[in-house]
Amino acid sequence: MVSMNQPVTAVGRQSTYPALPPQEAARLGEALSAKADVSVFVDGTSLRLPDGARDAVIELLRRLADGEGVEIHAAHAWLTTAQAAKLAGISQTYLRNLSDAGSIPVTYRGTHRRYRSADVLAWAKAHRGSENE
After folding, report:
1. What are the DSSP E strand ranges found in 1-133?
2. Confidence band (pLDDT; 50, 70, 90) for 108?
């Protein structure tokens, strides 16, 4: 079942969560900085998450504590040009130029470009790394 915050689009299911109110974000930030045990409860049962899942949950909580809104989608999701450009933090025109140059893989659905989110994130990570040198 898909909830109201998980619209089904041409690229799959995506969830958007707005930033927390400042007071709640500050409380969450304080709790995360205490480096105390992070427990997850599912139906009243404590569950220890595998490292990768734990890291993802902590990253999500840190971003919310920093006052950021968060979008979640599957790593294999196909994105439109607008979605991929937003994810990479670049303009749609620049993204099209990058894909035309072969810097970011692209596939076509008819005449429409589609980008794998994992490819866009890999490019963005590599690009951010080269800016800091």
Report:
1. 8-9, 12-17, 40-42, 45-47, 70-73, 78-79, 107-109, 112-116
2. very high
